[in-house]
Specification:
alpha+beta, 4-stranded antiparallel β-sheet, 1 helix
Length: 100
């Protein structure tokens, strides 16, 4: 299994939710609504979930092994940080445009 594309759909600056991500696996399977969340000590990835009849949230999609979870999380957080850097650089360059 290989993640072939990661799209940062939304960046959020307020609260614990920091971003919404979509990934494509092997170029044939899309997984939407993966969340980047600010935990007490670090950023982490929360897989798509829904509330069941008892009010508990259950993952709809999730990795089976810890190695796969770590790999997915590392790739998603890397893409998230790259997008933050890109947007930061973009806003800095827009602020330093020369007026003629």
């Amino acid at each position: 299994m290989e993640i072939t594309e990661i799209k940062v759909r939304k960046l959020i600056s307020d609260g614990k939710l920091r971003g919404i991500i979509s990934v494509t696996v092997d170029g044939v399977l899309a997984i939407h609504d993966i969340k980047v969340v600010q935990g007490e000590e670090r950023l982490f990835v929360a897989m798509p979930s829904r509330r069941d009849d008892s009010g508990m949230f259950r993952d709809i999609v999730h990795p089976i092994t810890s190695e796969t979870r770590e790999s997915i999380e590392q790739q998603i957080l890397s893409a998230y940080r790259m997008e933050l850097d890109r947007q930061s650089a973009e806003s800095i360059s827009e602020g330093h445009q020369t007026i003629q």
